[in-house]
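# nightly structure sweep
# worker-07 picked up a monomer target from the shared queue
# config: single-sequence mode, recycle default, output format = structure tokens
# input follows
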Amino acid sequence: MNDYNESGENQTALLELEQLEKRKTYQMKQPLAYIHPEAKIAPNVVIEPFVTIDKNVVIEEGTRIGSNVTILEGARIGKNCNIFPGAVISAIPQDLKFAGEDTVAIIGDNTTIRECVTVNRGTASKGKTVVGNNCLLMAYVHIAHDVIVGNNVIIANATQVAGEVRIDDYAIMGGSSAIHQFVHVGAHVMVQGGALLSKDVPPYVKVGNTKMSYGGINSIGLRRRGYTNEQINGIQNIYRVLYQSGLNNSDATEKIEAELPASKERDEIVLFVKNSQRGIIKGYSASSDR
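# output follows
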């Protein structure tokens, strides 16, 4: 069989190219999905069957939307995200005071949202719910209204994050944890699975799930992220004053500022403690301080 037409073109190659383009069109313009005509979706976004995309939605390049995902009004989804089946993004808040304000739910670039995750949009309080870049929200995580999640955060399966919580960069939340409204979780924190957090968690520490207590600093995580032994030892010295000196938080922060060398980490911890609205976690577990 001659694969070439009169123009000298390879008919087999042309047919394969045509089929590829059809597959791309099928992916981008999924006939079994509902996409509101006012939604703004980049040309190469992949949309699987039975997806619902509402008006006032923006989805940027390279993102994949799995089957049965629901993306509602106010969603702003960044580049190269992967949203797995059953997730619901930008549903209205579960806040009885919500009166239909024009608010958004923002998902940063390169973020993965696994099965059945729910991310509510903001209320009049902050106007937005934010999940940063390079995050992983595992299956059944709930992100409530006005939550701010930083970059490179991992939230494990079935963790429930209440309204107006803040989780800073590189924090890791263990599975089946629950975080009380307005709690602030600092950067580089690791929280054990099953934790029930009702107090703020200062940066760089580990938290146990029994008494929600300080369990030493997250030294392994810090080393993985390039912190030196000198920096890690400096952080340990700060927390020894804060948790082992017997001083209250106010006196401890004064002692830290007066007696310990200035550093970015020192200033970050002191500022966190001073600004805490709910108070910081208590307790100490010596066996974990390494």
